[in-house]
Amino acid sequence: MLTAEERRRDFPSLEGRAYLNSAAEGIPPVAVGDALAQYFRDKQLGMDGRKPHAAQWDAAKALTAAFYGLTADEIGICSCSSEAYNLAAMALRLMDGDEVVVNDLDFPAGATPWLQPACPATAKVWRNRSGALRVEDLVPLLGPNTRLVTVSLVSFFNGFRISLPEVVAAVRKHSPALLAVDVTQALGRVPLDLAGADLIVSSTHKWILASHGGGLVGVPKARTAEWTVPAGGWFNLEDAFGPKRFDAVVSKPGAASFTVGMPNYPAVYAIRAGLEYIRGVGVANIDRHARPLVLHCLSEVKKLPVELLTPNEPDHVAGILAFRHPRAEELHARLHAANVHVMSHAGRLRVAIHGYNTSDDVERLLGELKAAL
Ligand SMILES: Cc1ncc(COP(=O)(O)O)c(C=O)c1O
């Protein structure tokens, strides 16, 4: 893992700070800043810059593919997770009578396209029990009309990590549905095995330490037909400038149909650099270092007079834990004043622990909390 010197070199802004908020915003290493500066230099070449832009694009897709367990052809890059899900909704062409299963631990990006009044499908909500999504509660929601189950591998809300193999098995056994998995709160933090996922989506500004403006989409080859987006654009189209362009519009198949226009190249440079950095450190090493910190923090927070929202089940924990307290805002302000950074929203405090965090960060958090409660 990172030595103190490497940490200082790669993340100078962490000096003196206990930054425990990577589930909201990851801290980019200096290498990501260098990549953004490189983008600027390449952009100054004008159209000649498109060649280096394309090289970064290819590298970002290849890296994403390796993390997703797919090939580069099975990766598309759009601008954010929300865009990816809206495009996915277009591809599905849902009809009256179709059903979609969402869940109440999910981030809105993956859940709301199917809740819009214009969506003809009926959305069913897989509800958590004491902060956990139990597969036995999913099964009764599945049936012959289920077209899609959408879920996050790790919940943004309380950090609950589903058992993907169990969810895949239940979906396959009880429905013909596709399974979409949002890995935003997992990618770069925990090793992934995404076998069985029919669509994979991630944002880019959190645990992979890149910039805003990316949506990493994985479409396994076998699902190409289901996830070909019928959107207007040009980057996503076959022969967009050909002589027959006003006769018929044909989308590129699968992952390639998720980039409708000119790619967000600044983000692409940052994604390339962020993923390369994570690969260099090693996700397994990150998890080996950070997981004991999460489990320690969880067991200590459990002793405090707060309402723990994260089930105390090590198999279902990744990098996030959350709790509620009536004075959450005040606690947050106090922590922030002490240079301890966590997320505060709607009475809940969320703690996120990444590879660059140290046991000192966690002790500072616990010390401040104990003093304040
Ligand atoms: C699980 C999850 N998905 C997606 C997002 C973000 O979506 P978008 O990239 O559309 O901003 C977040 C957090 O911001 C998240 O926690």
Reconstruct the topology from this structure:
Layout: H1 4-10, E1 18-19, H2 30-43, H3 50-68, E2 75-78, H4 81-92, E3 99-103, H5 108-111, E4 122-126, H6 135-138, E5 146-152, H7 164-174, E6 178-182, E7 199-203, E8 215-218, H8 265-281, H9 283-302, E9 307-308, E10 320-324, H10 328-337, E11 340-341, E12 343-345, E13 348-352, H11 359-372
Parallel strand pairs: 1-11, 3-4, 3-5, 5-6, 6-7
Antiparallel strand pairs: 2-8, 7-8, 9-10, 10-13, 12-13
Bound molecules: pyridoxal-5'-phosphate (PLP).
Pyridoxal-5'-phosphate binds next to helix 4.
What does this molecule look like?
The structure is a single chain. This protein is an alpha/beta fold and 373 residues long. Helix content is 35%, strand content 14%. It binds pyridoxal-5'-phosphate (PLP).
Task: Provide the residue-averaged pLDDT.
Answer: 98
- How many angstroms does the end-to-end distance come to? 33 Å
- Structural class, by secondary structure, is alpha/beta
* Morphology call: globular
Rounded Rg: 21 Å
Task: Find the count of extended strands (DSSP E, 2+ residues).
Answer: 13
Strand content: 5-15%
Cofactors, ions and other ligands in the entry: pyridoxal-5'-phosphate
Helix content: 25-40%
* Largest sheet entry: 7 strands, mixed
Uncertain spans: none
- Biggest sheet strand line-up: 2-8-7-6-5-3-4
Structure annotation, total helices:
11
Element order: H for helix, E for strand: HEHHEHEHEHEHEEEHHEEHEEEH
